[in-house]
C-alpha cells in the first residue's frame, strides 16, 4: 500500500468521526459560510507569476520540517512578502496540521487560503467553507472521474474555488468545468523523487481553459523562471520556505530573486 492510500484510508476514518461531532448543520452557522472568497485564480492571473506559499510542519517524505512553527506569524509574513495565496495543511496524522491552523490563518490575513488536505467526501467541503478557506484541493490520484465532478460541482455551489492536482497525463481525463486551477505535482508518489520536467512535459497537454501551476520540488529561482517561460502562472512552494528559521523572510527573498531573474531573462532591466 503506497502512502497516498494510507492517508486516504485514515482520512475516511477521521471524516466519519468529525461528522458525528460536527454535523453539517453545525458547520452551516459559521460566519464564513456566506463570505465571498478571495480569488486565487484571479491573483495568479494578475502578474507574470504568483507564489502560493505553504504552511507545513511535517511530511511523510521529509519528517519534521519546522517543529515550533506559528501559523499566525508565518502566514502574516507570507502575506507581507506578496504571495498570491497561502496553502495550509489540515491533515493531522501525516502532516502535523489541523483545522485550527486554517482558522487561525484566516483571522490574520486577507489573501486566498487553500485548504490542503485529502478531500474525499462532500462533508470536507462544508468544513473548508466554515473554516474560512477560499480554495479546496482535489487530488486526481485519490478520486475517480465522477468523484472529481461531484466534489468540484458542490465546491462551486458553496462558493469555493477548486484546484485539481495531477501527477500524470492519464489523469487529465478527470478534468471538469468546475475546476479553476490545475496543479502538476512534480513528486513521484511511489519513489518521492521530484523533477520539474514533469510539469514541463504536461504543460501543453493541459487545456488553456485552466490556470496552470507547478507544485513540489521547486527550490530555486532559476527553475521557476524556466517554468514561467514555459507558461506556468503559479507555483506552490512549502518545504523550501518552511525549513528555514524565518519562512516569511525566505519567501520574500525568493520572490525578489525570481522577479530579478525574470527581468534579466526578458531584457527589461
Describe this structure in words.
- It is a single chain.
- The chain has helices at 3-21, 24-27, 40-46, 71-81, 99-108, 122-131, 145-157, 197-202, 221-230, 239-242, 247-266; strands at 50-55, 58-59, 63-64, 85-89, 113-116, 135-139, 161-166, 181-185, 211-215, 234-237.
- With 269 residues, it is α/β, with parallel strands linked by helices.
- The protein has a single domain, classed as TIM Barrel (Alpha-Beta Barrel), CATH 3.20.20.70.
- Strands 1-4-5-6-7-8-9-10 form an 8-stranded parallel β-barrel, surrounded by 5 helices.
- Strand 5 (113-116), helix 6 (122-131) and strand 6 (135-139) form a beta-alpha-beta unit.
- Helix 4 (71-81) packs across helix 5, helix 4 (71-81) runs parallel beside helix 11 and helix 9 packs across helix 11.
- The longest helix is centred in the last third of the chain and has 20 residues, at 247-266.
- It is globular, with a radius of gyration of 17 Å.
- 46% of the residues are buried.
Amino acid at each position: 500500500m503506497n502512502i497516498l492510500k494510507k492517508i486516504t484510508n485514515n482520512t475516511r476514518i477521521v471524516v466519519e468521526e468529525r461528522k458525528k461531532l460536527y454535523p453539517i448543520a453545525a458547520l452551516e452557522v459559521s460566519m464564513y459560510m456566506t463570505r465571498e472568497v478571495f480569488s486565487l485564480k484571479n491573483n495568479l492571473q494578475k502578474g507574470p507569476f504568483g507564489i502560493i506559499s505553504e504552511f507545513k510542519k511535517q511530511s511523510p517524505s521529509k519528517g519534521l520540517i519546522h517543529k515550533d512553527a506559528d501559523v499566525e506569524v508565518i502566514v502574516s509574513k507570507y502575506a507581507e512578502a506578496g504571495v498570491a495565496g497561502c496553502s495550509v495543511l489540515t491533515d493531522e496524522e501525516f502532516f502535523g496540521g489541523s483545522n485550527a491552523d486554517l482558522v487561525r490563518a484566516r483571522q490574520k490575513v486577507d489573501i486566498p487560503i487553500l485548504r490542503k488536505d485529502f478531500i474525499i467526501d462532500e462533508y470536507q467541503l462544508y468544513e473548508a467553507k466554515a473554516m474560512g478557506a477560499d480554495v479546496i484541493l482535489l487530488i486526481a490520484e485519490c478520486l475517480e472521474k465522477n468523484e472529481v465532478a461531484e466534489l468540484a460541482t458542490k465546491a462551486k455551489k458553496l462558493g469555493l474555488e477548486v484546484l485539481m492536482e495531477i501527477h500524470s497525463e492519464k489523469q487529465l481525463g478527470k478534468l471538469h468545468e468546475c475546476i479553476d486551477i490545475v496543479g502538476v505535482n512534480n513528486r513521484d508518489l511511489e519513489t518521492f523523487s521530484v523533477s520539474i520536467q514533469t510539469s514541463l512535459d504536461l504543460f501543453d497537454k493541459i487545456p488553456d481553459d485552466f490556470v496552470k501551476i507547478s507544485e513540489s520540488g521547486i527550490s530555486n529561482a532559476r527553475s521557476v523562471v524556466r517554468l514561467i517561460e514555459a507558461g506556468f502562472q503559479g507555483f506552490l512552494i512549502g518545504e523550501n520556505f518552511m525549513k528555514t528559521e524565518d519562512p516569511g523572510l525566505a519567501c520574500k527573498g525568493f520572490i525578489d530573486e525570481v522577479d530579478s531573474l525574470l527581468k534579466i531573462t526578458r531584457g527589461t532591466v
